[in-house]
Every structure is written in C-alpha cells, then in structure tokens.
Request: fold
Amino acid sequence: MKTPSQVAQVLVDVPGLPALDYAVPEDMDVAIGDRVSVTVVTRAMVGIVVGLSDTSDVPLNKLKKLRSVFRDMPPLGADWLALTRFAATYYIRRWGEVALSALPTFMKRNPTPTQAKRFVALRELPKAKPLPYEAPPTLNDEQAQALARITQAQGFEPFLLFGVTGSGKTEVYLHAIESVLEKDPDAQVLLLVPEINLTPQLENRVRARFPNETVVSMHSELADGARAKAWLAVHEGRARVLIGTRLAVFASVKKLGLVIVDEEHDPSFKAGDGSRFSARDLAVWRAKHAQVPVILGSATPSLETWAQQKEGRYTCLTLGGRAVAKATLPSLELVPPPGPYDEAILTPYVVEQMEAVLSQGRQVLVFLNRRGYASSVSCPACEWVSTCEHCSTFTVFHKAEGRLICHHCGTSKRLPPACPSCGNVDILPRGHGTERLEETLATLFPGKTVLRIDRDRIQGKRQADAAFKKVHQGEVDILVGTQMIAKGHDFKHVGLVVILNADAQLMSPDLRAREHLFATLVQVAGRAGRHGEKGRVLVQTRYPEDGFFRALERQDYPAFADPLLAERHDNYAVPYVHQALLTCRAKGLQDALFFLKNAQREGFALMGDTVRVYDPVPMSILKLHDEERAQLLVEADSRVDLNRFLWAWTQTFPRCGDQAYSLEVDPASV
Reply:
C-alpha cells in the first residue's frame, strides 16, 4: 500500500542534529517508530521515524530518500518515543542522541544478509536452568498491609516502601508482581536494581517464584547479542518481567503494569556520562505516563524521596521489623579506632569480639570502602608521596601486583625500589586498603578462611557468583570487602559486622556525603543477624558524639534525615532548589575558566529573577587524564525555570568538536 505521507522526520545519532526530513519513496510503507536506513552526508546510518507529513521546509525534490525500512520487529511504541523525548528535553540533549543510545547496538546496525539471519536468532532466548519452585511465604502483618495498599492502587501512584534491612521488601515486590501478572495476562513488570552483581541473585529468585513466565535481565556486562535478545523479548511482549540496572529503564516495554526501583537511594542509578540521566526519576516518569503504580524501596531513602513522602506526594509504607521470625536488628556499638600514629587497623577490643563470634562458628564481615593495599606510599626521609602523573591524586599501592595504580585514570607503574626523590630504600605504605586488611586478618586469625571481595579480586558475574556462593555455604569465616558486599546479600551466618574508616567520608565537603555514608553503613550493618541469631555491629569512629553516629547507633533513619532536610530547607539546598552543573576540561586551568567565565556572562544576560549563575571554580580533583577541570553551578527556584534557562543558555555555547564541556542536570555532587 502506498504511504500517503511524502516526508518522514527521522532521528539520527549525530551530535547537534535535530530530526531530519527524508523523502519517502512511493513504493515504501513507513510507520512512526520504524527503524530506517538513511544517508547522513555520505554515510549510511540507522534512524528512527518520529513523524510523517506531506510537507517540509526543504523543497521535496531536494530531500534525500529513505534507503530502506526494517521489518524485523514491530515499530517502537509511542510510550517509548515519549520517554526518550522527555529524557532528552529534561537532560538538555538532542532527541536522536538519547533515543539511539537507548537501543542495543545490534538494533543500530545496517542489515546485511548475515545480520538478518542473526536477527531471527534473537527470538531464541537461552533456556534457563530449571529452578525448584519457591512457594511464597506467609507475609507478616506489615508486609500484608503494604501489599494490600499497593494492589488497591488505581492508575499512577508512587509508593515509598520504607523497610529496615531484612524486613522483607523483596517479598512484597514478588507478591505485587504476582498480583499484576495474574490480573492482566499481557502486563509486564520493570524491576530496577542498582548493582550488576545483584541482578543474577534476584533474577534466580524471580524465576523460581514464576516458573511459567519469561524473565529476562539487562545490564552492561551482557554481550550485545544477549542484551538484544532480552530487549526484543520485552519489546514484543514475550518476556513479562525485566530485571535490570539503570540502562533497563530505557527498555521498550509493550504493556507496562508495574515499576519497582529497589534501593532507590543508590547513587549508581545516576549515569556518570552521556545524558547523565537518573534511572530512578525516569522510572517514576514512566509509571506516571503509563498510569501504573511505582514502588521505591529502601531502608535509607534519598532525601529527595524522603521529602516527597513528607510532603504527601508519595505514599509511605513502613516495614519496621525483620521478616524472619525471631530475627531482630543488630545492636550497634561505636568504638574508638587505633591512635593516629598506630599502624594497626583494628583495636585489641575489636579483635577480641571477632574471636568470640568466630568461636561460635559464625561469620564476621569487615567493611572497608578502599581498594588496594595502601592509599599511597611515601618516603619518611624527604616526604615524597606517590602521585599520578596524569591526575592530581595519589596512586594506590597494590601489593599483589607490585604496582602503583591511579584509581581515576588507570595509570599503572611498578613500585620503585627506592624513593625517586632522595634514593631512600625504606619507602613505606600509608593507610589501609582491603588487600592490606586481608593480609592483616590472615595473620591475626591463622586457620580461618579469609575472603576478599572487591573489584580488584572479583571480575565479572561468574567470579562474583562463585565468591558469594562460598559465603552462603559457610566456607568463609571472615569476609572482607567494599560496597560490593554491602547491598542485597542475604548472609545467613554473619554474626558480627565491623565497619572501618567511616570518618573519611564523614569529613567530605560533598553536600551528599553524609547521606550516602549513612545509607552505606545501614546497608552494611544490615548483613548481621538476619536469620534469628542476634547480630552485632562495631563502628570505629573518632566522632561518637556527632549526631550522625547517634542516629546510626539507634538505626533511626528519620532521626538522621529530618534534621538534615530541615537544614537543607533553611539553606535553600537540594531538594529545595534545582541545580545544573557545567564542567569544562582543558589542557590548562585558565582555558577551562575562560570558557566558563564566558558562559557565566551569557548566563547573567538570560537568568532573570528565578535563576542564579555562580562563579566558576576549579574542581576538587583538578587534573584528570592530563586535563585540568573547572565547574560552574546554576540554581533555579523551579524545574521549569531551570529547563527553560538551560535550553536558551546552551545555544550560546561555542560548538566544540572535542566535547570539552558537559552539562549535568540534577548533578550527583557539586
């Protein structure tokens, strides 16, 4: 059938380009949402049709024609196009950049005969290993009340599932999913999780609960073919449950019935590059657009979410006790760390408490959020300290490799045999990392099995699964790790958690440092005593009188969050103000500041009374990858005012091919 429209508006992923007009050949049938092949200058590219019309601002005889239209899958739906358009508008990006980057790489390739055959194979999902059916447990009263409130929701309603660690939030999710799938045979569920290493664990639990449903996962460690298979299964409605990290928020869902964001406070939901989107915020938008409920689960909600529920825009459902019978929250004790000149990392008291728990046949978890052996090496004779040649940071000593590594740019070099400055052979490690802690614990507890889990030791899904399996099976006595061990893992035998070096982040000037630290420590502490036996938590700190630790000691999130929100309100800070951060990198700081000062001048001319443009300043880590960096903060009284200003402001920026500047809306840190 001949297409009545003569012109197609097509999105392409080319920086700075809006939707482009192409002539539709007379023998080509095109629909909105189709993927098409087009020519941009002389290059063949894949684009997405987002509009059809009979006219164009360009004479029809001057328009390039569509090369071909792909018929290998149904067109992208109106809901997905609306999502990508909203994200582009909100995060000040071109629609084509957001839409095309949201597609799996496989979907953005021009087809060849081989590619067409491979696309057919995409519909063959790998056969999942059969799992024993997991019958749903009986919910306790709090869980049942929360579930009843969720299942009664009509249309869009945002819920904060505020539950202490071990309170059974996941079980509420599973019951809510079951209700949605039973009510509507076509409905699908989007379940977002913060960490890749949590996805397989949760996926297996969902598969066991719903053996007759197709459950797929999406995360960045998947090969392109596997990601495309999962994406297509959801797009075509064959998969009814999608579990994924932040990139899954852009999946094309045929009929959305429920959205869940687990650990909604987690910073990893905020992308650090590209459009720098927040998957949590986009998930809420998706639920609202689809008119379905959204559940945000956390023991330590973000201050933005906490403020929303306090102001009545989100419904708060509280789970105040642990779900397992007789399981209680662990007791928490603040203990002083070793003295400032003491090379030990554990005090004798902490060692005694660890020995007592180990003697009972239970496990000990030791948390230190710092990788490597030591944070640096230095010379006591001339005070030389190991630093990165390319960044304004220290290089971290990794003893097993015998190397100094920059954790920012990845530069690696051999540990020098002597001080490069004065020749002293007695250079010393300074500070403790998980590698050094593992070595110390092996010496203190001979005969006990010590396992370290961090990004240096664990690479990829298989290694993570194998390591955590050992912990769950009781083959490990002492577990040492970073944030990889803090979230979501249901350790049955951990009787004691030891938290080290919390003070470092407590003293950070970052506005969100305390919020993130409280969430991390509550998550780590929550690994103890989850299955009936009493658990304990020891936190080494020099500031036991700080209100932060008093709230942590009582494990009272409202006692921590409410005063902090009041302080933010009085100081007109996030979430009571809306921000954007413009950063610039250049070979020299003066060049970066010059660009930002020009941007500031243009901003002053546009800002009006409700927007404030601040002075440019150097970034806290000034030098990164041989470039020096500066930033400029913008604040506004409302999101609408900020968005309107940013679109006008960015039009004044020079077109830089090297992408020397970037703009982040709702910045993760300032």
User: Anything to note?
Assistant: The first strand starts at residue 7 and ends at 11. The two ends are 56 Å apart (CA to CA). DSSP finds 18 helices and 28 strands in the chain.
